[in-house]
Amino acid sequence: PVLEGDSVTLNSDLTEISDGDEIQWRFGDEKALIAEVNKKADRFNVYDDVPDGRFRDRLKLDKRTGSLTVTNITTELDKCYEQHKSFHSRSYRRPYIFCFTIYTRPPVPVIRSNSSQCSSSSSSCSLLCSAVNVSRVSLSWFRGNSLLSSISVSDLSFSLSLPLEVEYQDNNTYSCVINNPVSNQTQHLNITQLCQACADSAHCCGSTEAVIRLVLSAVVGVATVIVLLYDIRSRRAEQDQAQIHT
After folding, report:
1. Residue ranges of E strands in the chain
2. Where would I find the Ig-like domain in this sequence (predicted)?
3. Rounded to whole angstroms, how far apart are CA atoms 139 and 154?
4. Listing from the earlier edge strand, what are the strands of the sheet with 124-134?
5. Separation between Cα atoms, residue 41 and residue 24, nearest integer Å
6. Under a CB-based contact definition with an 8 Å cutoff, are residues 6 and 107 in contact?
């Protein structure tokens, strides 16, 4: 496995080329010649214009060992390479074949709330981790270092999504990880930001309702006191009037 943009060195397994040694490097099913070494003829050549110029400015040949380095690897170079050797007074041996798979660096996954609205009756929060236009990767949820769930995609480009349910008051550490054999990206879950807001909203609504009830109770209490005072004053006025009449 090789990460796109990296360099790969195809080793000749020689510490130093002798006068009679010859090496050819070929690429792909068509076995296009991309580099050759012939020390006796003093020929150390790279052919980076074939095929299709995809190797242009990407080949470096070690004149001491005959090893070939391919720089700035891209997916269009994801094929097998052959090394053909011949030594002084000996014919070509069976070629060595180098094959590698090129992976792109995956994007950082995105975590979002999967709940359409806050629900005071629910004690859990629904989350969704996703990544778009990815291939040859796995998407996973972790609680601490423990794997909770995972989903994979092969060579085709897909959008991946993986759900997770957590309690509002959960204090564990959760993370969503997307990875391939050579690279990974991690997004940590902020429960307070994505889930606690829903719980806070319900809590806020409950507090508001309590305040309203308190205010109404106070109003009713004041009104009751006023009515009682009015009734007392009215009774006293009636008694005064009765005494005067008497």
Report:
1. 2-3, 8-10, 22-27, 32-38, 43-46, 59-61, 68-70, 81-86, 96-98, 102-103, 110-113, 124-134, 137-143, 146-153, 158-167, 174-180, 183-188
2. 106-192
3. 12
4. 110-113, 124-134, 158-167
5. 14
6. no
CB count within 10 Å of CB 191 equals 20
Q: Is 13 left (phi over 0), alpha (psi -120 to 50) or beta?
A: left
**How far, in Å, CA of 34 to CA of 47, rounded?**
5
Query: Which residues, 6+ apart, have CB-to-CB distance to 56 below 8 Å?
Result: 48, 49
Q: How far apart are CA 85 and CA 30, in angstroms?
A: 18
Cis peptide preceding 51, ω within 30 of 0: yes
Q: How many whole angstroms from its chain centre is CA 188?
A: 10
Q: Give residue-wise pLDDT tens across range 124-142.
A: 889 999 999 898 899 999 9
